[in-house]
Amino acid sequence: MGPGASTSAAGFVMGVPWGTLVSVVFVVAVYLFVQDGWNHWYDPVTLPFRAWSYLYPTGMVLAPFSHADAGHLTGNMIGTLVLAPIAEYAYGHFPEERGSHSFADWTANPWVRALVVFPGVVLLVGLGTSLFALGPVIGFSGVVFAFAGFALVRYPMTTVVAVLGGQRVLSLLYSSLQNPIITTTAQPSPPSPPWWAGIAIQGHALGLFLGIMLGVFVFYRRDTRPSALRIWLAVLFFAVAKNLWAIYWFLGNETYRLFRGPGLAMVVALAIVVATALHLRERDLESFGPRTAALVVLVIVTAGLVGSGVPVNLMTVDDTAAPGDPIEVRGYEVVYAEDVQNQMVSVVDVEAFGQSTNITSSGVIVVNEERNIWYQAVSKGQLAFSGQRQVKVGGLGWRETVTASRDGWNAVGGGTAYRVFMKPPEGDWRVAFTSGNATAEPRLAGKNVSIAATEDGYELFVWENDTELGRAAIPITNESVQNASVTVSGIEFVREEQQNGPDRIYAVVGETKVRVFVKETYR
Q: What percent of the chain stands above pLDDT 70?
């Protein structure tokens, strides 16, 4: 150990985790100045900074250090501040080999190890989690899991306590300082994937195992190591707490499948493998025993996690033409479409767990040939819930916003007829999509009534036995006319404007008055 370094602070220089602080400053700087978080703290540019493909190096390089929003950033930085110092202390900036001196050369210099080596390894691991993750990933979480994996090798129970206690305490402290007192009411939630479908399981597992392998490499010749039981329990608790068991598959059009049982069994088995492999001694390599076998399995698992991301990231979008008539913004094409094949996952149709990767998408789709992007930015369900959504596109030093809006009419007992409008950054609204017809369940005088979306508005039509009997534009109400009507094939349609609710359309035949359509509302 070099002069001036106490045993208790051997992991740090002057008792400060400099490598951790340098890493945090770098990641926050990317958010502020690359993603334009300085001007839009809660709404950064994200599309161009995802790991779309090896053919788009900018995304590959910046994705592991970029974030989806402020909450994503703060969550990962809290995890870094909790776990990275443990990993940094375990690594130690002062050399521990007998006879070595702290400032003998640059490789042993504690300042170099703290300010260059540790942040350099963080950069390399970050690139690894980007290059070999199942894209298009974004965020520092893979590196946070690598910190955990490295720390688990040397301080297993300390790492678990830090995750289950310290991370939550810091998160609560941050939230409390930000909003000491909050008042809220119950609100309906927009359609969104289940919580487990928002977890980059492969990316997190990749980071964890990269950290574990680094730990095996660094601590292999060190005498001090925790017991196998402690390591097994710590890895198992950590994996369960961080939801590494949540293996899922995307079936397309907002449908997901969770393999909870197989995922839990896999986590238990891998924890056993890790605990066994980490107790490998030099003499164990002389014969192929359980510890050596566990190390081989550990290497194979890590290699499998690395290899699984290669074909995905090698993918290119052969047919990049956006469906329909897209809005073009500096290389981006933004369009609304439904039930179109997702080019980013269906170039080659393979299967996993019996589930096909050839899926379809519905919603606002963004295509960029130069960046190899084909992405459903807003789902059909999300737009139907909110009525209007914005899509941010951009690049280094610029950003623009394309807005999508929807209106529609619900048929009583039937479906919905609707239109989707798109507005470019500079320009007027235009109709981007019209749905199929919606037919009300009630029948009047043996006739069916339906509503159709057109580019100019909505039309009511009456039909019987697959034969259209007549149609007319939907009646319009205004400040002076709260009730308007039109007659089609002997059926009068009355539109009534409601004071505290959506407009309604009634069908009237003689003394019979039936509600058939209600204007769609949004939250």
A: 85
Write out pLDDT tens, residues 212-265: 988 888 877 666 778 888 888 888 888 888 888 888 877 766 678 888 888 889
460 vs 457: CA distance, rounded Å:
10
Instruction: Compute the C-alpha angle 181/187/192, nearest 5°.
Output: 110
Q: Are 133 and 308 in contact (CB under 8 A)?
A: no
Cα 362 from Cα 339, distance rounded (Å): 5
Q: What are the angstrom distances between the C-alpha of 190 and each of 198, 381, 385, 414, 431?
A: 15, 8, 6, 21, 23
Which letter, b or e, does each residue of 155-181 get, where b requires 16 or more Cβ atoms within 10 Å of its Cβ?
bbebbbebbeebbeebeeeeeeeeeee
Beta strands in 152-262 (DSSP E): 247-252, 255-259
The answer on pLDDT for 335 being more than 50 is: yes
How crowded is the C-beta side of 437, counted as CA atoms within 13 Å?
14
**Mean pLDDT for the stretch of residues 428-437:** 94
Q: How far is CA 117 from the centre of its chain?
A: 30
For residue 426, the 8-state DSSP code is S
On the question of pLDDT at 278 being above 90, the answer is no
Peptide bond into 57 cis (omega under 30): no
**Beta-strand runs (E) in 387-466:** 388-395, 398-411, 416-423, 430-434, 438-439, 448-454, 457-464
